[in-house]
Amino acid sequence: MKIDDFPNEIAPFLIPEPKGDLVYECLGCSGIYPIKKLLYVCPDCGSVLLITNRKFDELKKTDGATWQKIFDYRRMLNIPALKGIYRYHELIGPNIPIASVIYLGEGHTPVVEANQQLQQKAGARFYYKNDGQNPSASFKDRGMASALSYIKYLIDSKLAENIIAVCASTGDTSAAAALYASYLALEITSAVLLPQGKVTPQQLSQPLGSGARVFEIPGVFDDCMKVVEKLSENYSVALLNSKNSWRILGQESFSYEIAQDFEYDMKDKVVVVPIGNAGNISAVMNGFLKFHMLGIINHLPKIIGVQSEHADPVYQYYLEPDSDKRVFRPVSVKPSVAQAAMIGNPVSMPRVVSITKKYNETAGQQSVFFVQVTEQEIMDWGLLANRNGHIACTQGGECLAGLVGAVREGIITDSECAILDATAHAIKFSGFQDKYYTKTLSDEYRVVSKQELINTPILMMPDNPEKIPAQGKPLGEEDFRVFVDDICRKIARELELSDSK
Ligand SMILES: *Cc1c(COP(=O)(O)O)cnc(C)c1O
Ligand SMILES: [Zn+2]
């Protein structure tokens, strides 16, 4: 729809002008720093930062119902920069002119209700939000669209040039970073550091295909992260890990979309996310908090963060009920099929601690929960989900396992309905499925393949294995007829087909 065709009272709000007063805010010393420079950590105390809008209260001049209308009408506007996460421009990057916004098709991923059988098995009503349907097939594109739009804005404003963007990754951050950087190939060079053998072949092919410099490092993600941090301390590089608070801003869009897709009614809703570096859960909580502060939603949904018992530092931290006695201890990770979340020392831990506290206080009761699941549960629930029409990656399986665990623990009641983050597309992690089916997952995962979930291809050979067609060597007419009849009969027997006559 064209801007002139919108109602007069809403049209002036639809195409946003740069506004607001964004600053980095340190979670350690509360220091405030201007955003004219790319900062990852506090220059004074080294803690992680969040970006806040010092003019946020000005947004309150518009009431919640009007904001809902703005976002709903903006949905109909055909301006590419506002088709992705910047539909929520005022909350994501109010200072970014829409001319600097990079849009590659991210965001607004489908919310798909589970069928009756699967909901019954899980013991709760639920939907998957398919973030694997983002351009690089994971939710990381949300944060990257934000971070790269900000960098483009710096370049356009002559505040930066010749950017070398780097990140460490469990696979999906690097795919997203390389993709978005390659769109700005003239202005940005990207380099990614991956733990050798700890990303899937698909994830490795992604940054290579986007033309990034790819470095494989011995060890696990936490080791890679240390190297990247050292790089960013000693050299002039733009760090694209979720330590970069612009990533968090972009990932808040996940919550805005859920709110909008459920008509802004968050009563009795539960949002389930897997936790790795803990950037995503921080962003998801922050997003709902902001919508709540503006009266766009009246209820905060419950949040459930899920971790595998092979990489569960956040879960361990919250086991202690007394907040004064909690101590964060990094864990040494064991192999996990939820490999994208296999992180023992999450960089966003201070964000989780600070935002969880605020979230529970705002809700007036405990509304954030942490659940631990086994590798077996992750695989079994993920495979079962995909047998019922979903495209969940192993981390999406982890969410469903977490939902089931939360039901078991009484965290979720009958009246509630959950939205699970399928954080990446199933095909990125299909190697784990293959290994489950062929019973070749190494013992360290502690997963036993369940016969009823296994599915493998069946090679169909004719009675005479000499007479088979091959590339460039077709069978003679009669041999080919025999071959087709033979295979046809065998498939019909396998499928127990009945005669059509
Ligand atoms: C990065 C990632 C996670 C973990 O998200 P964090 O923000 O690191 O907690 C989970 N699933 C997938 C598919 C990911 O790529
Ligand atoms: Zn500080």
Automatic annotation (TrEMBL):
One of its GO terms (molecular function) is pyridoxal phosphate binding. Residues 103-408 form the Tryptophan synthase beta chain-like PALP domain. GO terms for biological process: isoleucine biosynthetic process; L-serine catabolic process; L-threonine catabolic process; threonine biosynthetic process. It comes from the Bacteria. The modification N6-(pyridoxal phosphate)lysine is found at residue 140. The keyword Cytoplasm does not apply. Its cofactor is pyridoxal 5'-phosphate. The keyword Transit peptide does not apply. Keywords: Amino-acid biosynthesis, Lyase, Pyridoxal phosphate, Threonine biosynthesis. Pathway: Amino-acid biosynthesis; L-threonine biosynthesis; L-threonine from L-aspartate: step 5/5. Its EC number is 4.2.3.1. It catalyses: O-phospho-L-homoserine + H2O = L-threonine + phosphate. InterPro entries: Ser/Thr_Dehydratase, Ser/Thr_deHydtase_PyrdxlP-BS, Thr_synthase-like, TrpB-like_PALP, TrpB-like_PALP_sf. Belongs to the threonine synthase family. NCBIfam families: thrC. This is Threonine synthase.
